[in-house]
Design goal:
Blueprint lengths: L1 H61 L17 H8 L77 E3 L6 E3 L14 H13 L4 H10 L6 H28 L2 E11 L8 E10 L2 E7 L4 H7 L5 E4 L15 E4 L2 H11 L4 H23 L4 H11 L1 H14 L8 H11 L1 H4 L1
Parallel strand pairs: 3-6, 6-7
Antiparallel strand pairs: 1-2, 3-4, 4-5
């Protein structure tokens, strides 16, 4: 009996080990299944995100806000006061004809005449013999005029100045003739050539290495370091002009500013650095400045002596400028108008309604400019034509906001206006 019991016990242990092995295998398969399920869920989320992007693009292409497009009905669960406010919201002003989307004009067919201001090199060609019999007695019968665009490649020249030195017969002193103007002492280039280089680099956006290769094809071998030094010289020469403009901006009572990213290659560092070009302007006075980042410290230091209104984006880095009230924040409604247009992809009718209030304000301002209004007369015009639109827009936003879901882009536009209301108006 003992031997039989031991045999059964061994068998049970073996079966138990097999069951444990099978259970471990099932656990492993379960973990793999969970991993595959998580991967499928992630893939499904990515596909849903892409599908959402495709649908947004499709809506953007198909949505064309029209005058007759009905606004969506408010949600069914909206309470009665909010529903009444939505249904009785201020009516969007009619857009004037010049602000309505224009139909794309048909592309003109046929060749356009070449500009008449271009100098013309005329060539008169007359046949010497008959193309049929070879005779030379030819009488003029007709004329064919061909006009083609031609080019004469620009000429890089040498300017040689021979400065004579003379001795005075009266006192015996020697006098040397003054040289022609040059950008700086002992310069290798003329002012005109330096202006050409700056124009190619910054107006035509041609990199210096391409300018260098182009010059090399003409037999003009210049090093890259020399071209870079010329750009630095040009910046120094323009410094007083730039400084005068900057002092003029700081002395005024308002200015506008904006910034855009600029990739900069720094020697010795991998990749490129993301710097910024800032622009400051008032009317025709414009100053560009480079900053290595978009922090507020440099901005506060630059505008330390400025007092007045600053037209700027609603960026966090501008907030320190308006703390003490010395600089008054003035928002840019062009950004808000653009946000309304972007929201038309999802809310064609409602976003077009909201944008119409801003467009009507721009139209009122355009009429004031056409009439040459200024000073108190312009202020009265704005109070009469634009202040009512401001109140109607606020009432419109308060009526529409409760009907929008949190992800609606139009809600973001309304929040932007409500958060920056004082600055924008």
């Amino acid at each position: 009996m003992v031997h039989g019991d031991l045999s059964d016990l061994t068998r049970l242990r073996t079966e138990n080990a097999q069951l444990r092995a099978e259970l471990a295998g099932l656990r492993t398969e379960l973990r793999q299944a969970r991993l595959e399920l998580a991967q499928l869920a992630m893939h499904s989320a990515q596909m849903n995100e892409r599908l959402g992007e495709v649908l947004a693009i499709a809506r953007r292409k198909s949505a064309r806000p029209t005058k007759s497009a009905p606004a969506p009905a408010p949600p069914a669960d909206l309470d009665d006061p909010a529903r009444q406010a939505y249904e009785s919201r201020p009516k969007a002003p009619e857009l004037p004809e010049q602000l309505k989307p224009e139909k794309k004009p048909r592309r003109p067919t046929g060749r356009k005449a070449l500009p008449s201001h271009l100098p013309a090199d005329e060539h008169v060609l007359r046949p010497e013999t008959c193309a049929q019999c070879g005779g030379t007695a030819l009488d003029l019968a007709d004329e064919i005029v061909e006009t083609k665009l031609d080019v004469i490649k620009e000429h890089h020249r040498r300017r040689v100045v021979r400065r004579k030195t003379c001795r005075c017969r009266t006192c015996g002193a020697r006098t040397t003739a003054t040289s022609l103007p040059a950008p700086y002492a002992r310069s290798k280039v003329t002012s005109a050539w330096l202006a050409w280089l700056v124009s190619m680099k910054f107006a035509m956006l041609v990199p210096l290495d391409r300018i260098r290769r182009d010059l090399a094809t003409r037999g003009i071998a210049l090093s890259m370091s020399f071209l870079v030094s010329l750009i630095e010289r040009a910046a120094d020469l323009l410094g007083p002009v730039d400084g005068h403009h900057w002092r003029d901006l700081l002395a005024g009572d308002w200015m506008a500013t904006d910034a855009t990213g600029l990739k900069v290659v720094v020697p010795g560092l991998p990749g490129s650095h993301h710097g910024h070009i800032e622009v400051y302007r008032r009317d025709d006075v414009v100053v560009f400045q480079y900053e290595h980042d978009k922090g507020s410290e440099a901005l506060v230091n630059k505008l330390g002596t400025f007092t007045g209104k600053l037209v700027a984006d609603a960026e966090h880095r501008h907030n320190r400028l308006f703390v003490d009230g010395r600089i008054v924040e003035s928002g840019c409604n062009a950004h808000g108008r653009r946000k309304f247009r972007d929201a038309e992809a999802v809310q064609p009718a409602l976003a077009a309604e909201g944008g119409a209030f801003i467009a009507a304000m721009y139209e009122a301002e355009a009429r004031a400019r056409e009439r040459g209004l200024a000073g108190d007369v312009l202020r009265e015009w704005r109070q009469e034509k634009m202040r009512p639109l401001k109140g109607e827009l606020r009432a419109w936003m308060e009526a529409v906001r409760p009907t929008l879901v949190p992800s609606d882009p139009l809600l973001g536009v309304i929040s932007y206006y409500q958060n920056h209301w004082d600055a924008l108006f």
